[in-house]
Amino acid sequence: MEVPSEIGLRMAHDMKENGYLGAEVDLHELAHLTENFNGEELKILTMSATSFALNREWKVDLFDLSKSVDGGNIEVTMHDFLMALDEVKPAFDKDIITMGISRPDAMLQCGEAHKCILRTGRALVEQVKQSDGTSLMTCILEGPPGTGKTSLAATIANESGIPFVKIVSPKNMIGLQEPKKVAMIEKVFKDAYKSPLSIIILGDIERLIEYSRLGPRFSNLILNTLHGKKLLMIGTLERHILESVGLLESFYVHLEVPMLRSGDMKEVLEAQNVFEPEDIDNALQALGPEMPIKKLLMLIELASQGGGEKIDVDHFCICLADIKLSAN
Ligand SMILES: Nc1ncnc2c1ncn2[C@@H]1O[C@H](COP(=O)(O)OP(=O)(O)OP(=O)(O)O)[C@@H](O)[C@H]1O
């Protein structure tokens, strides 16, 4: 059983104090299910579960409205909470961290470099969890667009078992004004600091915000507010931007996420099982020495459309040429 979140435990404690929590309610399960809820969201969840209990208990007899209703009998059950959980969702649902990869188990093996990054990521997680000397670990995954940086960060966070995971991504902030974005980022850090152990993923830092605005607050946010709490922060960025915005020193560990090389692409093609075995080498030859995983997956999808079970390698080459043309 994982350590339930501080907030979840607090909520369960409050309800017990108020004496209307059903005896069968599994507090640990409940705390586990509400790991990514903030205080306000927990209040709303509790109100929703209570209203389910009220609806059930206060069965009004429409044929005899003079009958009184006994409010003292209200008991909020686990079932009420489960129904409330269907309705009330946290702003930063843990599922968000799997963005890009809709299911963590859909993460493809694609070469030694990716495996090595995952291994290092796991080691960093263990260090933050176990070392008394490490309260803050910062790691940057740097590499060209579409190389799988965010997916790798999400996989590390997903596997970590750390209940409090927040992702800050430009995709969550489309259309927001700069001050609102800064406020959102600050809130994520403040929320994280309420948990004894947390992970924050900062996706595409350069697109998040104009760094000069965030910069001065950023170091304060990370360094000054920890107060004995433990945090692993994983950022994703392209290297030249990392240098140009002067962020290089803000991250202790730098991991390079490269494009897929021929051997890595072979691993992906074989796993996808989209070519006849004898066509794989021809396809690899057409693909050239390297390519970001995003582009390779897009190409496979494009070439698979409307065809049979396997992709015809000539058709694949035409799709590849189309993609190259449109990129120019
Ligand atoms: N190992 C993998 N298995 C399956 N799909 C993957 C894998 N890595 C990345 N992808 C897919 O490739 C796409 C790009 O991945 P991701 O967003 O992680 O890359 P990125 O380097 O963060 O991109 P950008 O620089 O554009 O932000 C996503 O759609 C994701 O689903």
TrEMBL record:
Domain of life according to the entry: Eukaryota
Any one of the GO CC terms: Golgi stack
Any note on cofactor binding? Binds 1 Mg(2+) ion per subunit.
Per the UniProt record, which EC number(s) apply here?
3.6.4.6
**AAA+ ATPase domain location, by residue?**
135-247
A Pfam family cross-referenced in the UniProt record is AAA
Q: Could you tell me what reaction this enzyme catalyses? A: ATP + H2O = ADP + phosphate + H(+)
Any one GO molecular-function label of the UniProt entry? metal ion binding
Q: Where in the cell is it found?
A: Cytoplasm
Q: Which cofactor does it need?
A: Mg(2+)
- Any single GO BP term: intra-Golgi vesicle-mediated transport
Q: Which UniProt keywords apply?
A: ATP-binding, Cytoplasm, ER-Golgi transport, Hydrolase, Magnesium, Metal-binding, Nucleotide-binding, Protein transport, Transport
Q: Does the entry feature the keyword Transcription regulation, yes or no?
A: no
- SUPFAM superfamilies, A to Z: P-loop containing nucleoside triphosphate hydrolases
**Function per UniProt:** Required for vesicle-mediated transport. Catalyzes the fusion of transport vesicles within the Golgi cisternae. Is also required for transport from the endoplasmic reticulum to the Golgi stack. Seems to function as a fusion protein required for the delivery of cargo proteins to all compartments of the Golgi stack independent of vesicle origin.
- UniProt-listed PANTHER family: VESICLE-FUSING ATPASE (PTHR23078:SF3), VESICULAR-FUSION PROTEIN NSF (PTHR23078)
Q: Can you say what this protein is called? A: Vesicle-fusing ATPase
